From TrEMBL:
Pfam families: ELFV_dehydrog, ELFV_dehydrog_N. Homodimer. The lineage of its organism: Bacteria, Bacillati, Actinomycetota, Actinomycetes, Kitasatosporales. This is Valine dehydrogenase. Residues 312-334 are annotated as: Disordered. Belongs to the Glu/Leu/Phe/Val dehydrogenases family. InterPro entries: Aminoacid_DH-like_N_sf (IPR046346), Glu/Leu/Phe/Val/Trp_DH (IPR006095), Glu/Leu/Phe/Val/Trp_DH_C (IPR006096), Glu/Leu/Phe/Val/Trp_DH_dimer (IPR006097), Glu/Phe/Leu/Val/Trp_DH_bac/arc (IPR016211), NAD(P)-bd_dom_sf (IPR036291). The keyword Cell inner membrane does not apply. It is found in: Cytoplasm. Residues 113-320 form the Glutamate/phenylalanine/leucine/valine/L-tryptophan dehydrogenase C-terminal domain. Its EC number is 1.4.1.23. It catalyses: L-valine + NAD(+) + H2O = 3-methyl-2-oxobutanoate + NH4(+) + NADH + H(+).
Amino acid sequence: MGRRTDGLRLWHYPDWRDGLTDALRLSAAMTSKFAVAGLPSGGGKAVVALPEGRELDTDRRRDVLRDVADVIASLSGAYATGPDVGTSPADMAVIGKTTPHVFCKPADLGGSGDSSPHTAQGALAALRAVSRRLCGTSSLGGRSFAVIGLGRVGAGLARLLAAEGAILTVTDIDPDKQKISDELGAVWRSPDETLAADVDIVVPAALGSMLTSRTAADLRCRAVVGPANNQLATPDVADLLHQRDIIWVPDYVASAGGVINAISTELHRVSADEARARVRAIEDTVDDLLDTAQRCGQTPAQAASELARRRLNGTSGPTGTNHGAVAVPGSVAR
Ligand SMILES: NC(=O)c1ccc[n+]([C@@H]2O[C@H](COP(=O)([O-])OP(=O)(O)OC[C@H]3O[C@@H](n4cnc5c(N)ncnc54)[C@H](O)[C@@H]3O)[C@@H](O)[C@H]2O)c1
Ligand SMILES: CC(C)[C@H](N)C(=O)O
């Protein structure tokens, strides 16, 4: 069995089976993410499905993480985890006490630390490629962006965009995040208004399935490019966006900066500079994909999926079409 890698999501779901569905969709996307990034791993995802409204106190959270660590340890290296929505390097440190199969522990414990700044840099690189396509320059100053989700990745990316002189509309379901909006001089709107904002590029940086046939019809932007995993509710939304002349860069391409940095530094042992260069190369990957799509009369989604398929078929060993999901039902957290 090939090795599968990727993050641990700790989030609320109406039913633990919704968490399982999320884990399966995310793990499939991770397989494509690793393939397009040229990384030698299958995709995986672990989800802790918390019942709606249930918050974990410190002790309960540690117990849940230990349960997750036991499951990962039982897989004997077939799956390694890292952070995702709802988890952090500190959580990886807890898991790391039970199993070595964990990425992104804090640097003082030998890990590569928080993946989110690298994910944000990777998404910025993807945005540069799309800006060049739309405006003839990779410079982001003066361009308008609508950032949805001001969590670890979204807030970091919004700060990078603000530093380049971009014009920002932002949102989050957490009203406390309006502080970040104020700090950046951004316009704060509701999530629905932000998705339909009249901007150059919408940047999904929250949870998945935001792009449905209905929301795609309401978009007023020229492109959708962001770090959120699984942005499309259903694959056909990519065609709807293409028909509307809206460029959509597949999430598994734009969001690869975090895993590229973690694998490059923790497994390939390259320098921080080399890892940064690999993350920045997402700009070239997106350039190539958009060129291929245009040349072959495809959507960027089709071009990316063909590239992933070619890489998966042409590679033996640890990379394969297999992906795996570990769902830890909410019962552990009840
Ligand atoms: N952390 C990483 O390195 C990394 C890497 C690749 C992809 N991603 C993806 O990027 C996205 C964000 O990850 P993160 O690590 O920043 O998570 P996070 O938990 O730190 O942030 C998510 C943010 O989205 C907000 N949010 C949730 N639902 C929303 C909605 N409907 N509308 C607006 N805001 C909403 C939350 O309140 C939170 O502030 C996720 O899809 C994740 O899978 C993260
Ligand atoms: C960094 C990685 C572990 C991240 N959760 C991703 O989805 O790519």
